[in-house]
Design a protein that fits this description.
200 residues, mainly alpha, 76% helix
Length: 200
C-alpha cells in the first residue's frame, strides 16, 4: 500500500466533516426527541461508514493492482494453461516446501544452469516472501542471486520491496485517515445495531 494521496485524504476528511456537521445539527435541533436524535445520529454514522468504506476499497484496490503488476514484472506471469500450468504448479509447490535459504540458493543456481526459468521464478518469489524471516537463513541473498541472474527485473524487485515496506507504514496511516470518529452517544453501539436503529 503506497502513501495515501492527498486527494484521497481530502475526500476522507470531507466525509468526516459532513458527518460532524450532521452530528452538531442533530444535537442542537430542539424539535427532535432524544430517541429521534439517536436514530438520526445512527443513520448518519452508517452512511458515513459506507462512504468511507467505498473510498478505502477504491484506494486499496488500486494499491493491490500495483503490487500484482510489479510481482508479474519481477517474477514473471503465472497465468498459464495445459502443460505449462502443470509446470508452474509443480514449480510453485516445490519452492513452497523450501525451508532453508542455502538449499533454495543451490536449487536456484541449478535451475538457472538448466534454463528452468519456471522453477527459478518460483524459488525467487518464495524467497522474496521470506526475505525478512528471522529463521531459515539468508533469503534476501537468494533474491539477490535471482536479481543478478536477471538484471532486467532487478529494479522491479527493488520497487516491489519498497512498496511492501511502505504498506506497513501506510497501514497505520490508513487506520487513522479512513476511520469515522463516532460521537459519544454512539460509543457503545456497533454498526449493525446502528443500522437497525436507523431503519426504525
Amino acid at each position: 500500500m503506497p502513501d495515501i494521496p492527498q486527494n484521497i485524504q481530502n475526500q476522507a476528511a470531507l466525509i468526516q466533516d459532513r458527518f460532524n456537521a450532521t452530528v452538531t445539527e442533530t444535537r442542537e435541533d430542539p424539535d427532535l426527541t432524544t430517541d429521534a436524535k439517536m436514530r438520526r445520529l445512527a443513520g448518519a454514522w452508517v452512511d458515513a461508514e459506507a462512504r468511507m468504506g467505498t473510498l478505502r476499497q477504491s484506494f486499496e484496490g488500486g494499491s493491490q493492482q500495483s503490487v500484482e503488476s510489479l510481482t508479474k514484472q519481477a517474477f514473471g506471469a503465472t497465468g498459464a494453461s495445459g502443460a505449462d500450468a502443470i509446470s508452474v504448479r509443480d514449480a510453485d509447490d516445490r519452492a513452497s516446501r523450501l525451508e532453508d535459504a542455502d538449499e533454495a540458493l543451490k536449487l536456484l543456481r541449478r535451475a538457472e544452469g538448466n534454463g528452468d526459468t519456471v522453477l527459478s521464478r518460483a524459488i525467487a518469489q518464495h524467497a522474496f516472501g521470506r526475505r525478512n524471516d528471522f529463521f531459515g537463513g539468508d533469503w534476501a541473498g537468494v533474491v539477490d542471486a535471482y536479481s543478478e541472474a536477471h538484471p532486467q527485473v532487478a529494479s522491479k524487485i527493488s520497487e516491489l520491496a519498497n512498496l511492501r515496506s511502505e504498506s506497513i507504514k501506510s497501514g497505520f496511516a490508513a487506520a487513522f485517515v479512513f476511520s469515522i470518529h463516532k460521537p459519544s452517544e454512539l460509543d457503545r453501539m456497533g454498526l449493525h445495531a446502528a443500522q437497525a436503529m436507523a431503519s426504525k
